[in-house]
Structure formats: C-alpha cells, structure tokens
Amino acid sequence: MARATPARAGEIGLEPRSAARLQVAAGSLLRIARAEPLGAISAIILVLFILAAVFAPALAPYNPLSNNHSIEMQPPSSGHLFGTDQFGRDVLSRILYGARVSLEVGIGATIAGGVIAVIIGVLSAYFGGAVDYLIQRVVDMVQAIPSLVLLIAILVILGPSLPNVIIALSVRSAFVTSRVMRSAALTILGQPYVDAGRIIGASHLRIMSSYILPNIMAAVIVLGTVNFGGAILAEAFLAFLGYSVPPPQPTWGSMLSAEGRTYMFVGPWLLIAPTAVLSAVVFAANMFGDAMRDILDPRLRQAGSGTF
Amino acid sequence: MIPTFLILLLVVVGMIRLIPGNAVDLMLTSQSGDRDVSRLAVEHRLGIDRPVTVQYLSYAAGVLHGDLGRSLWTQRPVSEMIAGRAPATVEMVGLAVVVSMLISIPIGIISALRQDTPMDYALRSAVILGLSVPSFALATMALIFPALWFHWTPPLEYKPLTVDPLSNLGQMVLPALILGVGLSATIVRLMRAMMLEVLRQDYIRTAWSKGLRERSVVVEHALKNALIPVITLFGIQVAFLLSGSVVMEQIFAVPGVGRLLIDAISQRDYPVVQGVTVTVGIAVMAINLLVDLSYGFLDPRIRVH
Fold first, then answer.
1. Which residue in A160, A269, B15, B166 has the fewest CB atoms around it within 10 Å?
2. Helices (H) then strands (E): counts for chain B
3. Which CATH number characterizes residue A197's domain?
C-alpha cells in the first residue's frame, strides 16, 4: 500500500497514506494529460475561466457599469487593457463580469438540464411501454422545433431575465439529452445484475439509483461538459436576437452583438475581445467533453456536438 | 410520427393561451378604436374565445386541408406566406448540407486514418473552433473583411435562382459556408469514430492482406458502412440548421422562413408563428422518416423491416 517512502512523507509533513494517494493521483493526472493533450489544455482554459468569473469583483480594475464620457471608444492601452466602449466603460471589467453571467448560465443550464434529462431518460427506459412511448413522442416534438425558436418562445412567455434564460436553456437541453440517457439506461437494464437486483427484492427507486445511475455517469459527464459550452453559445445567440439578459448588465453575448457589431469599423476591439473569450471557453468545453469521452467511454458516439 | 405531430399541434395551439394577456394589448396599441371592443375582436380572430378542444380540433382540421389561418397583421393566408419564403431557406440549407458533406467526410476519414497524429488534432481543433465561434460573429467578420480588402459585399437583395443565378449564389455562398462549417463538427466526429470502428473489422484486414491500395480499401469497403449513422445525423441536425438559418437570414438579408418566424414572434403574429412551427415540425419529421427509409437502401441487412 505505501508507495511513498516514509522519509518523503515526513518531509512534506503528510502521513504516508495521504502522501501515497497524492502521488498516485498526480501520476495518473499527468498520464491522462499526456494521453489527451487537447483535453488538458481545455481543462486549464476552463479553470481560468471559472477563476476569472468567481473572482471578478477582485480582479476587475474598474466598475463595469460606470460611464465615463471623457474616455469613450479608446483602443487598448496600459490603463485599459481591452479598451473602452462607447460609454467609456472598461471592456476588461465588463468581460470579467460577463464571465460571471456565462458561468451562471452554463452551470445552471447544465445541472438543471442534466438532472431533468437523467430523470426523463431513466424513467422512460425503466418503465417502458406506454410511458416510454409517450415520453419519446414528446421528446421527438421538442427536437423537431428549432432550438432558437423554442428558446425565444419560452422567453417571450416568461420574460427576459437571467433565471429565465437558464430555465429556457435547461428545458431545451434536457429533452434532447434525455435520449442518450435513455439508451444508456436501456443498455444497463439488459444486464443480468439488474435482474438479480429485482430477484432480491430491490425497489424501483433502488434499482434506478444504485444500479442504473452510477453506470450512466460517464454519459452524464460527457454530455454535461458539451452542453455547458452549448449553453454559453446559446446565450450569445439569444443576445443577438435581443432575448437575453437586458442591458446594462454585461454578458458576452450582448457585448458581441450590440457594441461589437455596431462599432466594428471604428472599434474592432469591442467585437474581438468578447468573441475571443466566448469562443475560447466554448471551444475548451467541447474539447474537454471530447477528451472525457475518450477517457470514459469511447462508445458514446451519439453525444454529438451538444444540443444547440 | 402521427402522435408526435398531434402533440406538436397541441403545444402550438396551447402556446397562445400561455402568452401573457398584455401581449394582446401590444397588438392593440397600433389599432385605433375602442379598446375593449378591439380586444374582443382580436380574441375572436385569434379564436381564443372558444374552448380549447374546439380550437385544437378546428386547427387540426385546417392543417389537414393546408389552411394555416391568416396573418393578424396582413390578413394574407399563412400558407401562402410560408410558400413564398420557403425556397430561399431550402436553398440556403441545402447548400449548407452540401458544403458540410464536402468538408466533413474527407476530414473525418483523414482524421481516422491518421489517428492521434498532429494532423488529427489540428483538423479536429479547426472543426470544433468553427463550431465554437458564434455564427453571427463569423458572419459579421465575413461581411467586413472582404469589404475592406476586396471591396466586395454579397448582394443584399434576393433574386431567385432561376432569375439571376449569379447574384443568388453570391448571396448564398457565405451563409452556406458558415452554416456548413457549424454542421461539420458533429459529422466529422461521427465520421471519424465510425471509420475507426469499421477499420478494425476483419473484412478490412482481409482487404489489406489482399494487397489493395489504401484508397481502395477506404472508399470501397469502409466508407459505405461508416456512412450509415452519418445519414441519421442529418435528420437530427435539420432542426439545428433551421435555427442557424434564422441568424444567417437576418444578417445576409435572405427572405426566408426563419426571418418570417422571428419577425412574427416579435410582432406577436400568432397564426404565422403557429403555421411556421407546424410546417417546420412536419418537414423535420418527414426528413427523419426518409432517413429511416434510406437505411434499408444502404444496408441490406436492415431490409427485414
């Protein structure tokens, strides 16, 4: 069991077993990183993104909402690393605070969507028959409506705000992702150990939670990471059509679509900065999802590029 | 397919009832006259003063006859409006599909054959990058840079293909490219995965041992089998394409169905919204049906059905 030598453990002040575990973990992480270099780079980008979003208030040099008419439309300089926009607001600070919105949207939509997708998919697979048929027809229908249309329809009904954007994105991704969850659950239900569980009298809930759920985690993780990127991208599209979080709150999507496009000839930095960060994060999320899939289960081919 | 369609109709009819009441007022603000009378009139025209079941049945009956109601603003039949806009969208989407096939199948194959080499990584990265950049950002840049460097902008006035093919294609080439690239990411991934799996099969090994050239092995033996799930993917991606076309139509001024829908939503022109949603839903389901039927054609083992 003890892989670390006692002398080493003593040096860093850890007990032998924790030090051993750390070494094993570090070793395997390095091995994984070498096997999936793109995934490793993507993971770093995502971590940076999360840190930037979480620590935005501490990192942002200026208030993202304060107008300053004396310094409107300034190109990047030492005082304003990404320049200023048409109201004199610092673009870097707006990007950092915009990261928060993207992170909230991404995490909210992914978790809510993932939970609902698992529930729908597993229930559909487990109970089969008429329940399955009906649920799958509803999923068909949701999938047939172009995602942007569905999102806009939901937001028209609920009104544009951050929580509603998250709700709309979750609904869309949940239904479409549930398909994959269902087929994964069906595969597991065909295994003998599920029958064994039934024979010993396991309840429906127990079979679903202890037998099916742990075994579909791979699919959940892979699709979750890809949906994360998709949600951030979808927010940008909603902002373009005017259905995202209303101004003056900075979101990458609205920075791109409003200031970015309007002033792109006179102030290209207004377009380039949000486009670059948004694309980088979405790209990293997709690549990370790819890497996760390669590691966890190369057979998860239906996962595709996300649900948007 | 039919049950899905019925559920779709149900949602579409029910959608109107969910719209907050002040949306009807929104429509009324541009009309003159007594507000209460107008409100009743509008509700009557929308048909929401009848019980839900009646609304649903009458709409369903109408759809079967090709009657999708009339626009609240222009009074034109919705089916006529859609028919007028459809060719532009169909053409753009069709070109996008062609573009993506031309890009993604070769890339998927090369990626599979040179698995885990830098070429593989580079190709996959490039394709996913195409997917990660929002298409309207790409489109904006695609409009700006040719204008700056070559003094060229795509024509912004729509001319049907039969009337002026050059202008038509000039308008369509950029949106088709951008949409096609977005579509490619999924297909490349799938193509690569399928090729990897197929290439490991025994019959491929036999072909190699027979001394056949790489091209022969790939194209004649592996490709056909790898293509089947790719075709499925097209069915699924049609909805994605229509989504993307909404944005492209907006930027490149293509008078298509997507723009019709978005304009109708912002104007609260419910019959048009309903009509377009139903039409699009039918189209997607029809395409998926065709895809299912094509399996029997491509893979003789599946013909049992």
1. B166
2. 13, 0
3. 1.10.3720.10
For residue B266, give how far its alpha carbon lies from the nearest alpha carbon of chain A (Å). Answer: 9
Whole-number Å distance between alpha carbons of A12 and A276 = 41
* A60 domain residue, yes or no: no
As for the ipTM of the complex, it is 0.72
Residue A23 lies in a domain: no
Provide CB contacts within 8 A for A139, sequence distance 6+. Answer: A120, A175, A176, A178, A179
Judge whether B185 is closer than 8 Å to chain A, CB to CB: yes
Residue-range definition of the domain harbouring residue A110: 106-247+281-308
> Is residue A161 assigned to a domain?
yes
Q: Which residue of B has its CA nearest to A143?
A: B239
* Residues B16-67 pLDDT 10s: 666 655 455 655 655 555 555 666 666 676 666 667 677 777 777 777 777 7
Q: pLDDT of B153-176, one tens digit each?
A: 777 777 777 777 788 888 888 888
**Could you tell me the sign of the dihedral formed by the alpha carbons of B295, B297, B299, B302, in that order?**
positive
Q: How many domains are there within chain A?
A: 1
Q: Is B137 on the interface with A (CB under 8 A)?
A: yes
- CB contact set of A264 (below 8 Å; sequence gap of 6+): A270, A271, B140, B144
Q: Is residue A36 part of a domain?
A: no
CB B96 within 8 Å of CB B176 = yes
pTM of the entire structure?
0.78
Residues of A within 8 A of B7 (CB-CB) are: 137-138, 141
Q: Which of A146, A278, A279 sits opposite B242 (nearest CB)?
A: A146
Residue B247, chain A, CB below 8 Å: the answer is: yes
